[in-house]
Amino acid sequence: MRQTLQTSPAGSISAVTPPRRLRASKEARKNLVAYAFLAPWLLGLLIFSAGPILASAYLSFTRYDLLSAPEWTGLNNYIVMFTRDPRFAKALQVTANYVFVSVPLQLTLALAIAIVLNRGLRALSLYRAIYYLPSLLGGSVAIAILWRQVFGLDGLINQVLALVGIQGISWIGTPETAVYTLVLLRIWQFGSPMIIFLAGLKQIPREFYEAAEIDGAGRWSRFWRITIPLLTPIIFFNLVLQIISAFQTFTQAFIVSGGTGGPVNSTLFYTLYLYQQGFSAFNMGYASAMAWVLLGIVGGLTLVSFLSSKYWVYYES
Amino acid sequence: MNHKISRRRLLRMAAVGSGALALAACAAPTPPPAVPAPQSPAESGDEAAAPTSAPETAQRVTLRITWWGGEPRHKKYNAILDLYQQLKPNITFEREFAAGPPYWEKLATQVAAGNVPDLIHMHQDRVNEYANRGVLLPLDPLVESGKIDLTDWPKGTVDAGKRGGKNWMIALGGTTASSMFNENWLKTLSIQPPAWTWKWADFTTLISEIQPKLAEKQYACTDQGAWSGAYETYIRQLGFDLYQGENLKELGYPKEVVADYWSMWEGLRKAGALPPPALSQEFMNATHADSMLAKKMVPVHLMSANQLQIFQEFMEDELGIAPIPRGPKADSPSGDHLGTAWISIYAKTQHVDESAEFINWFINDPEPAKIYAAEHGLPGNKKIVDMILPTLNAPTRKGVELVKALADSMMPAPDRPTQAAQVQSAWTDAYFELAFGRLTLKEAVDRYFDDAQRILTT
Q1: Which residues contact A160 (CB under 8 A, 6 or more apart)?
Q2: Do the domains B177-336+419-457 and B58-174+340-406 match in fold?
Q3: Torsions phi, psi of B453, nearest 5?
Q4: Cα–Cα distance, B316 to A48 (Å, whole number)
Q5: Cβ within 8 Å of residue B90, ≥6 positions away
Q6: ipTM value for the complex
Q7: DSSP conformational letter for B456
Q8: Nearest-CA distance B17 → chain A (Å)
């Protein structure tokens, strides 16, 4: 496209501008080569990401059951969602509760472990690998199935409780506790924020601590006055990342509740409900609208995090 | 002027060219259908195998077939399809299969993409969605011409595959909702297994008699109050339809029916004869091997008759079977309907005759019937039934014999709107809100009706 724009008027202009034109077209050619090499990736982006994203934006304004052509319904999906769908409200509530409980706990644990590991352990890389392992496994179907067993009525947890004479309940079958088994599962996957914290901790200059120690600062005040402030950019980064990923939790909820979001919708995560609407009820239009609302929510929260960051995140320079 | 093509330029052209190629390839995501290679006449065996043959039937034909199920079922299907390929070397099957729920996700996606297999497995609850949208081929001409021969089939079974007067699918078996009980266990409790004429009142009596004789953490019956197989039968026994009105946008029964039904279950639950709701929830999606019935936590369970054999595989005790409890009056309708897997043909298939020929063989020939071994319950063809019944293992036979006994009183499958699955979720939600004591009976029933009405009219 760019090339034709450059070359087509060329014949009429002729003598005055040849050096510039030559340079420009050489530049264009160079770019074109670059684009050609980028083509596989670009096409992938357009076809497998941008295309479906645009399609879902369109579908969110339609009634679409996959079997017949989409039918334009304007804002109807969005209106129904916010005014007539109690399960949508329930899904939002369940997910928000999950995110705001699990993410802070997960980051706290990740930071605590990172600080322990930063004490100059001998086999640091071994421990780091071990603690990272749950992050690799945690999202898998196998672990979710294991979780079901562990927190069942005859599961590991209750067997341990029985040893000390406590009669356990079915943790995954009881509406009040089911979602917290999933919170635990998320906290258990503290590995990747831990690695990032560890890297951040290693960047804090030793001299700060030494100087503080000479001034008589205790361990606690060194932690609060040096470690935390200098780590805030890392905390901020981890927070944004984990909020986004927590909102997208799907596999665990799907497996642990057998795809139902039960007991009585207590694990009906947003993405699970979206999936039910799209692939069980075949309300693809509604599911698309839900996806865009989720994007709005996650985008909004990220924006709030960024806006708030100037009040609590300290950058050294 | 220098017209020499530089190496750089050549490279550039090549790169742009391949980029354009990739573009073109992506612009037409479905490659043109492979034209079947003309068959060399040397393979004359084909002609003998295909008696209806015009010359073109000897052509190589690839039929795509898709079904749902677990590993043992896939083995049976593969054996049957292999056998057919041996008989008809010109036919090759492209096989696609999945577990139940993903099957429907995949099929809907394939329909959206216009990439539908020639032979589709169908279900009585879903057929409307597909038939109404022109996905399925009406089979009536094929049945009339005898290409699909249903002369040895009971009229009821044939009619069960019809909607709006047209035949969309052929039954691959026949099953219905049933009651199952652990015979050995009941014997040790010296409790008589239910007669096949038992009513709902007998059901509650039996359950209440069993419970006091059980140990701790054992319950007389699974909490199946949210299982559609049982409650839909109950509702239809009282003479109500499940849905009514234009486009089936209304529930067909009044609140009292649901309130009566739920309070029956609630009574049993309060008496401790059903597992606590948390436990029921935990086992809701358990596999057969991990079910309360197989784990000897309950002696009575309500489930589709064809699943008796699957439970039996994981149990030492012998299972018995009975119908879902009958309606209150002597002349109450049975409420039963024939459920099974069905086979349909894609409306736009290129291979109508080959597909029909395969279906005809699959449903009427003894050889595939032996391999299939009543996988989906009572076969449609009466001659096949007589032939296969003695060869079946005892648990499969029990299920098949129950369906055979109920066959004459069966009702047509209920008509459902497309939102039926969501209405079912609303039932389950409200029912368990009641079970967990978070709603009163009246609140739960109101909640269900509100939700259902909203779902049906949205």
Answers
A1: none
A2: yes
A3: -65, -40
A4: 52
A5: B39, B43, B46, B49, B50, B57, B58, B59, B60, B61
A6: 0.78
A7: H
A8: 9
